[in-house]
Amino acid sequence: MRSRIGEHEWKPGEQIPTESQLCELYGTSRITIRQAVSNLVSDGLIVREPGRGTFVREPSVTAGERGLTSFTQEMQALGLRAGATMLDLRCEPSSPETAGRLRMEPGAPVVTVKRLRLGDGVPIGIQTAHLIGSRFPGLEHADLSDTSLYDYLRDYYGLYPREAEEAFWVTRASREDAALLNIRSGVCCFGVERITHDESGPFEFVTSIMRGDRYRIHLALRALH
């Protein structure tokens, strides 16, 4: 069963055979089949949907110990085609929260870039980036639909990110976000905040909501002594 999934004989999103069909296919007992299915569910390869059946799970993006990369680079590293749908792009006064994160005066202009991020055409998350307006004049007129934001900042503004801090938490998808992510309203997702710096200090404050079934976090932990 694991090989059939790995070799895409059973494709992502496709329903696998029923328990009875699996018993007949492999010539084994229901107890053995149930244990095998439970193992695949625990490993995140398949998912049970009550009243519908058991389906091959869509591949997930794993965020873990890594370098400072863009979403596009993360998708490429996983063998997925990155994509985006532009939801909002404007220059506007910064809120007190955004101004505090970017160490600027409240009300100073920021360029807000809100995009639906895709992996192989499937929604993975919604990212809203706020960038210091005075550092990126004209950015609100850029075509960023299917372009790496960091690549654009490098090519047009000569900016190279140096470091970032990220925070993760669990949240529930609002009705609006759920419609964009193609999930049910209220489903658990990951909330993410990121502040990115270059040699001059913070230049970007990003908030994201990522699908819980398409995004995982893997961290390496070490003893302090």
| CATH top-level class of the largest domain | Alpha Beta
E-strand count: 10
Helix count? Answer: 7
User: What is the N-to-C succession of helices and strands?
Assistant: HHHEEEHEHEEHEHEEE
Regions with little confidence, pLDDT below 50 for 5+ residues: none
Describe this structure as you would to a colleague:
- This protein is of the alpha+beta class.
- The chain has two domains: 2-56, Winged helix-like DNA-binding domain superfamily/Winged helix DNA-binding domain (Arc Repressor Mutant, subunit A); 61-218, Chorismate lyase-like (Chorismate lyase).
- Helices cover 25% and strands 36% of the residues.
- The protein has helices at 2-6, 19-26, 30-42, 71-77, 96-102, 149-157, 175-181, and strands spanning 46-49, 53-56, 61-64, 82-93, 109-119, 122-132, 163-172, 188-198, 201-211, 215-218.
- It has a six-stranded antiparallel beta sheet.
- The longest helix is centred in the N-terminal third of the chain and has 13 residues, at 30-42.
- The model has no long low-confidence stretch (mean pLDDT 85).
Characterize this entry briefly:
The chain has 2 domains: 2-56, Winged helix-like DNA-binding domain superfamily/Winged helix DNA-binding domain (Arc Repressor Mutant, subunit A, Orthogonal Bundle), CATH 1.10.10; 61-218, 3-Layer(aba) Sandwich (Chorismate lyase), CATH 3.40.1410.
